[in-house]
Description:
- The chain is of the alpha+beta class and 321 residues long.
- The chain folds into two domains: 38-173, Immunoglobulin-like (Sandwich); 185-309, Sandwich (Immunoglobulin-like), CATH 2.60.40.
- Helices cover 22% and strands 31% of the residues.
- The chain is built from eight helices and 18 strands.
- A nine-stranded antiparallel sheet has the order 4-3-2-1-6-7-8-9-5, with helices on one face.
- The longest helix has 22 residues, at 2-23.
- It is extended, with a radius of gyration of 29 Å.
Amino acid sequence: MKTKQLLILGCILVILVIVVLVFENPFGKSEYEKKVETATPLFPDFDKEQVTKIEIIATDGTATLVKQESSWVVASMDNYPADSEGIAELLTKVGEFKNTQRVSNNPEKQAEFEVDSTGVEAKLMDGNDKLLAHLFVGKTTPGFLSSYVRPADANDVYVAQGYLQSVFNKGTRTWKDRTIFDFNKGNVTELNISSPEETIELRLDANGTWQMLKPEASAANTTEVDNLLTTLSALNTDDFAEAQDDLTAYGLDTPQSVISAVLNDGTTATLYIGKEVEGKLYIKRDDKETVFRLFKSNVDRLIKKSDTLKAENPVPTVETE
């Protein structure tokens, strides 16, 4: 009995010791905790709201982003609308950079961390072209959860959280806004699909139920129609095609397929589908000049067959005695 009591008392003692270690921290704070508490921003005077121009200089070229009133454009690409979410992430990251963990101040090691011309250089400016932040983003750390950064006016190299190369350098994806369509799918009242095989017409009836009019009259498969509209109403491109005066090369002079949604305010969202090259199809809105590219699997989510969009016939019931 005494042995059992001793074991119980021993367990209680261990638990109490753990509680003290966790909540009282008798040994004081770790060096890293102290650094976190005393860390200061790499750019103390940086205010993301003042940034109106960003230059991203990478080995594959330079991108210039400019804020026009409340919207961002890619000035280096004919003022095409920019990826606003990507820019917001970049600005937030710069504001979060702190001097918590310095790994080097030796200028000879900058190439090792790729915080020189081999990395990504970023200049953030205000409306008067005054530099608010100027930095180099280097490679990821061995754990791949953080990256090296260096203020351009210093030799100090720091560790910052996240895979920052993709935040600052979009590469072939570019800084262009990838949105093709962005509308409320609940406002669609008509849906038309034309393909080499058939023409499909769908209408929303007075009861708010989708009906198929062509190629045959039938109730529509509500789930399939809803999935299609979800894709179409928030459609983003997989890639951009080079600008061409003649759309023949893309098969968009005479599109092979067309999908069009009519909204309750009378506006339409129409998409032309052209040739397929290397697994991607050229596509274009009827009211825009930009030619996009979508993977075939994404196009297949739009150009559906009537057999898929038609409601399944109910299974006949068999009367039994």
